[in-house]
Write a structure and sequence with these properties.
Blueprint lengths: L1 E2 L5 E4 L2 H8 L8 E8 L5 H12 L7 E6 L2 E6 L9 E4 L7 H12 L10 E9 L2 E9 L5 H9 L2 E2 L25 H19 L1 H5 L1 H4 L11 H15 L16 E5 L3 E2 H11 L3 H19 L9 E8 L13 E8 L6 H15 L4 H13 L3 H12 L4 E7 L6 E2 L2 E9 L8 E8 L2 E9 L7 H21 L7 H15 L2
Helix pairs in contact: 1-12, 9-10, 9-14, 10-11, 10-14, 14-15
Length: 496
């Protein structure tokens, strides 16, 4: 700890958090954006009291970033004022979805003010008969898993909970996730070896940037080290993703869109009928929507595969309630070239199984730790190198299974958008809440000016999969639940 001019302490930022801090650039701001939709009016004064009591107990939300050479530190903001971070706004015109989209689109392209703590909340008081809370939080403060914990700490399970009441901690442990969640299938094998391996092979990871140009030097590693070495060599030799409408030179303007939610029980039912996981189904719908967008724009998609960088939680059990970034990345090849919905689901499942138990997540976390402690002139080429390997960042976060309340107002729905790094121009976010599944897409305006056309296809792709699954199971006894689901979707479509 060091003292600043005001006599308060400075805390060194971790190397990984520093890496995320320095990824911030005009074409890709490292800011996580989320929206909470409320059924009624959100009491602005009461929300302020909740934030004073529950949010500001996390010291990061009262601290600003100070940079010095290759490092960065946290220090208390001597002029901290909640009013600089909690704002009350009103939408113009009809104050409906188009107006809210315009507001969020304007916000996501505005850099954070680094003279203050790196977060902003906006209360929209006139949205479709209710209220909306828009949150923007810089990635250097924490990763998505930790930030969900923070936001949930502001909520209650009962409408009449007092401001001073302390909510029960919501912790995303491995056993609490869906048993067929492939993101947890990735988490479990790497988490077992994470703590010891990352420390034991720090020297390997510390020299990994130089090894990128000469992977054969890794042959001297031990059996376990060979796993890391082979994974690192695989990344080093992985070809760049193909150029499509989704990949190219970025602008400084982003666009967001969000979907109507899908019923989670119905997604589960389709997955069960096919012998696949929930996320096999969801990721197949994502691949189908991206495929349809490219086809409409005349791109050749037969046999096309594009990769998504998928965050994998590596947070140790003793740091589940701590801020900061504790995740690595794996590269998931999306089968855009597969037209048949059933075949696409099974291909997604097969590819997820191929990367299960690999070392990619540990390696990328180690590399972030390394480059975050090196000069920025070293980090930026490394980030550029890895960003050529992916077309999108894709993340899946499980939200509360039951309705929650904030400052006495019921949360109707949740949405969020994941930032992209380097030259990646698309982010796809999947979030479950109260037995519903939501999709959010963020794109670069220069590459994809109309993300709404992608989002609109998630529902139709799921409907195609339902119909295809129903036909796929006709060899055996008819599935009444699946048939009823298909009829319900057709009725919903025919309703004006």
């Amino acid at each position: 700890m060091l003292l600043n001019l005001f006599g308060s302490e400075r805390e060194s930022m971790s190397a990984v958090d520093t890496a995320w801090l320095r990824m911030d650039r005009p074409t890709n701001l490292m800011v996580i954006t989320g929206i909470m939709f409320f059924e009624g009016d959100l009491d602005y004064q009461r929300l302020g009291q909740v934030m004073q009591t529950r949010l500001l107990k996390f010291k990061r939300f009262k601290q600003r970033v100070v940079r010095s050479g290759t490092s960065a530190s946290w220090e208390d903001d001597p002029d901290f004022d909640l009013a600089n971070h909690l704002h009350r706004v009103a939408l113009p015109g009809a104050a409906s979805k188009p107006e809210l989209e315009t507001m969020v689109n304007d916000l996501i392209s505005i850099p954070m003010d680094f003279s203050k703590p790196l977060w902003q909340f906006y209360v929209v008081e006139n949205y479709c008969g209710g209220s909306v809370l828009v949150a923007r939080i810089h990635h250097s403060i924490a990763d998505g898993i930790a930030l969900i914990q923070v936001l949930l700490s502001l909520t209650d399970k009962e409408e009449d909970a007092t401001v001073e009441s302390v909510p029960k901690k919501a912790r995303f442990l491995a056993g609490e996730r869906e048993p067929d969640d492939p993101f947890m299938r990735l988490y479990k094998p790497v988490a077992k070896v994470y703590a010891g391996m990352l420390k034991s092979y720090a020297k390997v990871l510390g020299t990994s940037y130089g090894l990128m140009t000469n992977p054969t030097k890794l042959a001297e590693l031990t059996q376990t080290g060979m796993g890391l070495g082979q994974g690192l060599a695989k990344m080093a030799t992985m070809p760049a993703d193909p150029r499509t409408k989704f990949k190219g030179k970025l602008s400084t303007t982003k666009r967001i869109a969000w979907s109507e939610s899908l019923p989670l029980p119905e997604v589960k039912h389709v997955g069960k009928a096919l012998g696949c996981s929930i996320n096999d189904v969801l990721l197949s719908c994502v691949a189908g929507a991206l495929r349809a967008y490219l086809v409409e724009r005349g791109e050749q998609v037969d046999g096309l595969t594009i990769r998504a960088s998928v965050p994998v939680n590596l947070r140790p059990e003793n740091k589940l309630d701590k801020l900061g970034n504790y995740f690595g990345l794996v590269f998931l090849p999306l089968p855009i070239g597969v037209a048949n919905p059933i075949e696409r689901v099974y291909e997604v499942k097969r590819r997820m199984e191929e990367i299960k138990g690999g070392y990619d997540a540990i390696i990328t976390l180690g590399l972030l730790s390394v480059v975050g402690s090196l000069p920025n002139m070293v980090e930026q080429p490394a980030i550029e190198f890895f960003s050529t390997k992916s077309t999108a960042v894709m993340t899946n976060v499980p939200g509360p299974k039951e309705p929650i309340f904030m400052a006495g107002a019921k949360v109707q729905d949740l949405q969020f958008w994941v930032p992209q790094s380097g030259e990646i121009g698309m982010g796809v976010s999947i979030l479950s809440y109260n037995d519903r599944v939501n999709f959010g897409v963020m794109t670069d305006k220069k590459l994809v000016p109309d993300p709404q056309t992608i989002i609109a296809r998630f529902g139709s792709e799921f409907e195609k999969l339902v119909l295809a699954t129903l036909m796929h199971t006709l060899d055996g006894p008819p599935d009444p639940e699946l048939a009823e689901l298909h009829l319900a979707m057709l009725r919903m479509q025919s309703t004006p």
